[in-house]
Design brief:
CATH architecture: 3-Layer(aba) Sandwich
Number of helices: 12
Structural class: alpha/beta
CATH class: Alpha Beta
Helix content: 25-40%
Strand content: 5-15%
Radius of gyration: 22 Å
CATH superfamily: Alkaline Phosphatase, subunit A
Largest sheet: 8 strands, mixed
């Protein structure tokens, strides 16, 4: 296990530069007064930072690409022309342009970003959603961690056990969506369900007498929670995205990410602590035809979902207690390849944040003239995880014990990102 301790990450110059943000920066690690929730819009495959939030209009054509900048509602902050809705809410958004990583392979980079640990063959580290699930627990009878519409490698609980895996919602964009695990089959009533539960309990007891295993314990707890959810009117109501007005659903976009973001808002409103929304697996992996794919599908879908979510949370008075993050596992290469695509690029990319106590209308960090290297305010996955756990009121240095008794810290070192939270 690698524990990083990069004491030189943020020096005196960084703190002086951020000092104008106010005295709030002196309490960056303090948990907010309200219980914090987080919605992560995961851009699987790696969003092209140079085509979205870190455009370089003066770079050569084979780097700057086909897209133009547009002004946002914050003077001096400009974004891609295919993010018009996001441009209108940039006063509520902070762009971090200086994220960097040491992993350029999808699976390993995803694991690194969602756990803060470089992958190891000897242990499967837990994702941030699962750690929050374990440390904070459920509230209002809702699962603490939900994945919309599905789950992927590195989203889960790893060594913490299946009990802390995400609850899987399914795709809320399908016609007649109903959360599949919250509805009984037509030929099963509550009497039969109770009988089945009793039978399962008897069989489980028999198996336990043969072999005691952590998997049995996790399965038992997971099954218990499933029964509780099935019987919970609050859970059924929270997952009923169809109850939202048609106009609002259209505003979010009738897409998996759009309706997923709307469902995520309903879930955090009902007590879910962490929701991951992803279009699918590696959709942003645009090695070919990057510009057509981005302008016709990826960017409009993200733009409507992200902007509508932030505005909706603000209108409901929920933005201060709900952190919204848009990111992927790395960026894309500034140099356009022969297939009109962009390849993997972990040296620099952008992450966008809104809510949860983060001031809006700002850009943190910078890259060089071609968006290739970070030139100011470098942030790595360890720092991001350390900061987020601190904001949730979770001690980053808390130690878990793996199944073989190995101590594993919540965060793999790292430091608070200065100035990110007020």
């Amino acid at each position: 296990m690698e524990i990083t301790n990069r004491t030189d990450l943020f020096g005196r110059r960084d703190f002086l530069r951020i000092g104008s943000l106010g005295l709030g920066a002196m309490h960056l690690g303090a948990a907010p007064k309200k219980e914090l929730s987080c919605i992560l819009l995961w851009q699987s495959g790696g969003s092209p930072h140079i085509d979205t939030f870190d455009m370089k209009p003066n770079a050569p054509k084979d780097i700057r690409g086909e897209f133009n900048e547009i002004a946002s509602n914050v003077p001096g902050i400009r974004v891609c022309e295919h993010l018009p809705n996001t441009a209108k809410i940039m006063d509520k958004v902070t762009v971090l342009r200086s994220m960097k990583s040491r992993e350029n392979n999808h699976e390993r980079a995803i694991n690194y970003l969602l756990t803060g640990y470089l992958p190891l063959p000897t242990i499967e580290f837990a994702s941030i959603g699962s750690v929050i699930s374990k440390m904070k627990g459920p509230q209002n009878g809702m699962p603490p961690y939900v994945a919309v519409p599905n789950t992927f490698p590195s989203y889960g609980a790893g060594f913490l056990g299946g009990e802390y895996n995400p609850f899987i919602s399914g795709d809320p964009n399908v016609t007649g969506y109903r959360q599949r695990d919250l509805t009984l089959p037509a030929d099963v009533d509550w009497t039969r369900l109770s009988s089945r539960a009793h039978l399962v309990k008897q069989m489980d007891a028999k198996f336990r007498s043969i072999e005691a295993s952590p998997d049995f314990a996790a399965l038992d707890e997971y099954t218990k929670k499933a029964y509780e959810l099935i019987q919970s009117p609050a859970a059924k109501k929270a997952f009923d995205v169809g109850a939202e007005p048609d106009a609002l659903r259209e505003r979010y976009g009738r897409t998996p990410v759009g309706q997923g973001a709307l469902l995520a808002r309903r879930l955090v409103e009902s007590g879910v602590r962490f929701v991951t929304v992803a279009k699918g697996w590696l959709n942003y992996d645009t090695h070919g035809d990057n510009f057509n794919i981005c302008k016709k599908a990826l960017l409009p879908e993200f733009d409507k979902a992200f902007a509508s979510l932030v505005a909706d949370l603000h209108d409901r008075g929920m933005l201060d207690s709900t952190l919204v993050i848009g990111m992927g596992e790395f960026g894309r290469t500034p140099k356009i390849n022969d297939g009109a695509g962009r390849d993997h690029h972990c040296k620099a990319w952008s992450v966008v944040f809104a809510g949860g106590g983060i001031p809006g209308g700002r850009v943190l960090g910078a890259t060089d003239s071609t968006a290739t290297e970070v030139t100011d305010f470098p942030v790595e996955p360890e720092d991001l995880m350390h900061t987020l756990y601190s904001r949730f009121g979770i001690d980053p240095n808390h130690e878990f014990q793996s199944s073989i008794g190995r101590p594993v810290r919540v965060a793999n070192g790292g430091k608070i990102i200065p100035g990110l939270f007020a």
